[in-house]
Recover the amino acids of this structure.
């Protein structure tokens, strides 16, 4: 993933005071998120005083300049596929007979 997009998303999360679930969705670990925060503090986009992380003026300018990177335009990426409940396709002439323990209305 693009470093500018990750930084912009982090700055947006901090500005809106939301959780980091979006960054985890993109595959970052908590350690990588902490490193990203440190990088933005050293670059001057974030202020980390008194155990509170906030955006600096430079960070707000960076976020406004890169806000278009945050929007996800591809609608297919909005919702993840649920592969856990996917079943194999059967022929239209086949008959599916589940086992008794899989039928919830018989329990």
């Amino acid at each position: 993933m693009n470093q500018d997009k990750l930084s912009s998303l982090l700055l947006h999360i901090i500005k809106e005071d939301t959780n980091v679930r979006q960054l985890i969705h993109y595959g970052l670990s908590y350690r990588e998120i902490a490193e990203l925060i440190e990088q933005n503090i050293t670059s001057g986009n974030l202020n980390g005083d008194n155990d509170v992380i906030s955006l600096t003026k430079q960070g707000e300018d960076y976020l406004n300049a890169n806000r278009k990177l945050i929007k996800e335009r591809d609608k297919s990426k909005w919702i993840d596929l649920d592969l856990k409940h996917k079943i194999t396709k059967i022929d239209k002439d086949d008959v599916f007979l589940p086992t008794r323990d899989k039928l919830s209305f018989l329990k």
About this structure: The mean pLDDT is 86.
